[in-house]
Amino acid sequence: MSDEIIFREDMSVELVKSSASDADVVWAARVSTAGDKSLEDVGSDASKSEGLINYLARERHGSPFEHTSMTFFISAPIFVFREFMRHRIASYNEESGRYRELKPVFYVPSKERKLVQIGKAGSYTFIDGNAEQYEITVEAIKETCKLAYANYQKMLDAGVAREVARAVLPVTLYSSMYVTMNARALMNFLSLRTAREGSHFPSYPQREIEMVAEKMEAEFAKLMPITYGAFEKSGRIAP
Questions:
Q1: Span 42-85, pLDDT tens digits
Q2: Annotated binding-site residue? 175
Q3: What are phi and psi of 74, to 5 degrees?
Q4: Which of 79, 166, 174, 181 is 20 to 30 A from residue 45's alpha carbon, by CA?
Q5: Catalytic residue at 193?
């Protein structure tokens, strides 16, 4: 008997491990002038550390921010992961439809998701759809997903290999992966995948990947508050 089909509107992001603090940035930067004494007194003067980090971010001396690591476990639709992997400054391991039977969990947009695109590529905005458009969207997605998963199960039941049967599944299917990146890479990701007033270079991300980015940003802000503050002050430009 196949699993019950689940439709979700949310994204899951969990910080599973990290080696990332503002002190990591400070000692990495100080080695250029202090050599083997760069670890001494790190963090003893918070104002000096903050000043150094703000300087590094403002002047875009980025390499000290690379001496950090954050690993996230993320559950999101496949189409979000395809956008994610445009960022070749991280390490990814995603669940495989070749080696496990994929669960029937699919994405549908919430009522808050803007549905209508105005303008042309490179210069467009999104606005709210009406009730009819939302109903058509959700019904079409659910109908397609149910049929696709039924055909997937049909092929598996007939003995067809998982790697072949998965071909019928849509990109609204949820997948899961581990993503590991350093603070510099994460700031680059956030600068492109979140829309924020005050950003030096405005970005127009797809809402679904922005939902993931927002949760990653919250974890980053807790881990490295001085670095995060410097990122904000510099107009959300990655150093």
A1: 555 556 789 999 999 999 999 999 999 999 999 999 999 999 99
A2: no
A3: -125, 135
A4: 181
A5: yes
